[in-house]
Each structure stands twice: as C-alpha cells, then as structure tokens.
Amino acid sequence: MAFLANAVDAQVIFISKDDFISTKQYFDRSYGSDYNLLNGRLYDLPYSASTHPFLHSDQFKPGNIQLNDEVYTGVPINYNINDQQVVLQYLSNSGLTQKLILNQEAIESFQLDGKLFRRLSFPETGTRFFQVVRSGDISCYLYWEKKLHKTSASFDTPYNYSKQTRIVYIFRKGHLYIISNRSSFTSLFNQVHKKEIEQYLKREKIRFRNSTEESLSNLIDFCARFDQDQ
Question: Taking 90 as the threshold, does the pLDDT of residue 120 lie above it?
C-alpha cells in the first residue's frame, strides 16, 4: 500500500487498512482498479468551530479532478480554503460517509461549481491552488482564503472561520501582481492606454474586491489588445 508512505508529518493519521479496503472497493466499482484517488488521508476537522473552512458551502458536490494526468469526473468533492485541501467524499461498505484529503502534490487541477482551479507556483506566492479566471498573455487568478479564529463565545465551539475573502492576481510578462484597486491595475499598462482603461473600469463599474469573474475576464480581454500594440 504505497500511498501509506506519503505521510508528510509523523503526527498525521493516514487511512487504516480496513478503510483502505472499503475505499478501494468503492472506487473499483466506480472507476475500475485505480489507486490514484486513494493517495490521501482521512479528513476530520481538527477544531470544533461554529463555521466551516470550505469555499462557499460545506456541501460536497460533483466535481472533476485531474490527478497525475488522470481525469475523474463527477466525484463528490469540496475545497477547504483554510488549509488548501481538496477533500473527497464517499460511502464506505458499512454505509458511513467518509472523507479523504487528496494528495495536494498529485492534483494538477480540479473543477467545482463551474470554477476551474489549478495548482500553480510563482516566486511571489509559492505553490497554491488558484482559481483561473482567464489565461493567456495576460492571466487573471483568484486566491481564496479563510482564517481560523479563537472565540470565547461558546465552550462547545471555541473557534470560528472568518468570511471567505479573495485576492485578485494578474500574471503578465513573467510577473505576478496583486490587484487591490483600479490604480494598481492601470499601473501595469503603458500610460498611453491608461485613460482608456480607466474609462472602461468606470463604465463597467468594476471593483476588484467583489466584481464577478465574468467582469474580470471581460476586462482582461479588453486590455489584451494593448499588449499586442506594444
């Protein structure tokens, strides 16, 4: 059982032999004899919290995962943005719902709720999962996060997770930039085009803190032609 040797921390409890057999049988029925999806460890929330660490919802939904060049479609997953973990849900032979943390290093990409995430590495951030809004000569990525806080409000749930937030990144000409406002975005482009871009931002009412992914993608499409002019 080679996947048991993938422990990063000696304190982490990996999947037991019985759970391994149960999980293998489940995936044998679903995908054939495939150990690729079993490369992980059992998931359990380490803290008793009044909120959850997942993106948008704590409900597991059908998603797609690319693991070591293999693509799995329609598997129930969720994304723990506090710990940067993709968690797989399945039913054991005994009928119990189990959750498995997939090996982060094996995940190339995954799709959930119509959003595409890729595991990307940049000198500015290290390796992370980024939501891909737009890719090309100018790429736009979102990084989602939550923070875990201790609270004295309840002895039963002494912790809670903050509201989810996102950081907008633009990758252009080999560099990754954090975009926090209109000024930080327009500064990436030649001054000749700055006024035209500013007008577009005002006309489309783009606020980088909460603009939709479609609005951000359209903005990048609008600005991409300026790179072609240079």
Answer: yes
Q: In the chain, where does DSSP find H-type helix?
A: 17-31, 182-186, 191-203, 213-229
Average pLDDT score over residue span 102-127: 93
DSSP 8-state assignment for residue 164: P
Instruction: Give me the pLDDT at residue 12, please.
Output: 35
Q: Which residue has the tokens 């939550």?
A: 146
Residue with tokens 């603009």: 211
CA distances from 211 to 1, 96, 182, 202, 218 (A): 46, 40, 12, 12, 11
Angle at 116 between CA 63 and CA 19, to 5 degrees: 35
List the beta bridge partners of residue 127: 121
For residue 56, how far is the Cα from the chain centroid?
11
Rounded (5°) CA angle 85-87-90:
170
Spatial CB neighbours of 6, under 8 Å, sequence gap ≥ 6: 14, 39, 103
Would you give the end-to-end CA distance of the chain in angstroms? 55
Q: How far apart are alpha carbons 73 and 37 in whole angstroms? A: 12
Strand partners, 118: 109, 130
pTM of the model: 0.79
Q: Which residues contact 67 (CB under 8 A, 6 or more apart)?
A: 36, 37, 39, 102, 103, 106, 107, 108
Q: Find where tokens 């723990």 sit.
A: 80
| Spatial separation of the C-alpha atoms in residues 72 and 60, rounded to whole Å | 15
Q: Cα(160)–Cα(45) distance, rounded to whole angstroms?
A: 12
